[in-house]
Structures are given as C-alpha cells and as structure tokens.
Amino acid sequence: MLAILAVAAFALIALVLGISRYGVLVPQVRLLIEARTDGLKLGRVGQLRIEGLSGDIWRDARVRVLTIRDERGVWLRAENVRLSWDYSALLRRRFEADRVEAQSVRILRRPTLTPKGKDRGLPLSVHVRSGRARLVLEPAFSVRRGVYDLDFALDLERRGDRSGKFKAVSLLHAGDHLAVEAVRTQAGAFRLTASADEARGGALAGAAGLPANQPFRLMLSAQGAASRGGFNALATSGATTPLMAQGGWTADGGRADGRLRLGASTLTAPLAARFGEEVQFSLSGRRGVGDLHALDGQLVSTSATFRAWGNADVAARRTGPA
C-alpha cells in the first residue's frame, strides 16, 4: 500500500510539474500570460504591454511587440524581443538572463516620468550577462533621428553590489557614441564613467536638450567612497560649455566647484528664466563632531545668491541638531 501511495504521489507531482513546465507552450496559456501582464506598472516610466508571446517561456521566450506607455500613450516600442534565461533562479528572487536581444527599440518621445506610486525598490535581483538591440531615437525625443547598435550588461543585487555597462555606437555617423559604466558596492564604494562624442552634433545632443547641429562632447568620471574620492565633469556644445565641475574629498573634508549654463539646454531653460542664464556653485566641508561635517555651500546666479551652512552627515543624509 505504501509503495502504491508513493508511486501515486510521484505521478501527481510529475503531472503538476509537467503542466507548469509545458502548459505555457499552449497558445491559450500564452494569451492568458499576455493579459495578466497588460498594464504591469514599471514605476515612474509607465505601464508594460506585450503582444505575440512565443517560444519556450521558461528558457527561450520571444515577444513580437513590447511597449511602455504613460498618461500620453506609448513612448517606447520594442519589436522581436528574445530572452534566454533561467526561470529556476526566480525561486531565489533572482532574474538571470544569458542574453536579451531586440530587433529594434524605438524611443518615440520623452516619457512624462510623473509619480505613479511609491517606489519599493527592486523586487528581485537582476542579472543580464549580455544584451543587444538596434536603438532608434525619434525626433520627438532627440530633435534629430539617431540609430545605434546598443550593447549592455546589468548586475543589480536587491541588497548588495550593483553595476551596469551601456554602449551605443551610431550607425549614421561613424565615431559618434555614448558609453556609460557604473559600479556601486554595498560598502559604499562607487565608480561612474561616461563619455559621449558627436563630431557634428546629432541625436545625443538633442536628447540632452542641446543644439543638435553643434558638435557635442561629454566626459564624466567619479569614483571613491565615503572616506575618499573625487569627480570631474565637462560637457561642450559648439563653443558653449554647458557643464564644468570638479571636486574631491577625504575623511577630513573636501570641496566641489562648478558652473552650469541653464540656458544652454531646453531641459533646464525653465530654470534659467527664474534663476538666470548661468549658475556657479561651490561646496566645502571639514570634519566636525562625531560623524558630522561642517558644510558651507553657495550658489550664485545672475539674479540670486543662495548660501547654506551647518553640520551634516552627507553619507547618512542627515543634518545636525542645529
């Protein structure tokens, strides 16, 4: 009797696993999955919709069309998306993909990015070993149309280290590119590098709100930890320098200085109308009592001057009792 019960239990488990594993291959089940994911919220970026789900959902899934929409409608459209992944990692609250590909990813316009609910952080760790896509920036987003070969990789732990690489190489203008690499450890160390170059202007400049018909270059480098670090940032657009900043710090204190031309970009033009064409800023600090530092910051524009000083712990984002 025990043997019969054991065989029956094993058969039942095998049936359940079989349905879970192969049931998703049935077209009706795929349609159900599409319906359940329709409207899935993605924080401030909007809501997800997928159409034409096919392939082995648990290992090699494919989607004919993927869109993200906000209050104004669809702003991102990806076609022929392919996902090679390990579904069993979800049991450990991890999304692990060997490869993510898309025939095309079109950014149709700027998303609204309005608050759409409380940010509760990552629900699971995300690991993408390799990603590739043809990225298209439409004029409503970047003034000029841009077409790029996109490569990326992500390692985002829910409660731990996070890193990512992103590189877009233009197919319309040889040499034009954007490259970003970021690393942040749970211990507080970080590294961020970014470079962009458009010899005759283009979609990258337009996406930043700068003139799309002027040469554009961006260089950004920052690395360190709470105890020591430094950064440099420089952006040029034609003969204009929209951004220039530098700084460094140690456990005993530090300083940062820079200049930002608010009127150079359409993204910051509303601020230029209120505070002036250009803003210069400086922030200095020295070790105070305990974990607190004595900070002194100043922001000067053509129409106003702001100054703030006092004790604070920048790493913990808290101010002193006074």
Mean pLDDT: 85
Which H/E pattern describes the elements? HHEEEEEEHEEEEHEEEEHEEEE
Strand content: over 45%
Question: What is the strand tally?
Answer: 18
What structural class is derived from the secondary structure elements?
Answer: mainly beta
Helix content: 10-25%
- Describe the largest sheet: 18 strands, mixed
Low-confidence stretches: 1-24
Straight-line N-to-C gap: 77 Å
User: What best-fitting shape do the alpha-carbon axes yield?
Assistant: globular
Task: Throw out a few tags for this protein.
single chain, 322 residues, mainly beta, 18-stranded mixed β-sheet, 5 helices, 15% helix, 52% strand, globular, disordered N terminus
What report would you give on this structure?
With 322 residues, the chain is mainly β. Helix content is 15%, strand content 52%. It is built from 5 helices and 18 strands. The longest helix is centred in the first third of the chain and has 21 residues, at 2-22. It starts with a helix and ends with a strand.
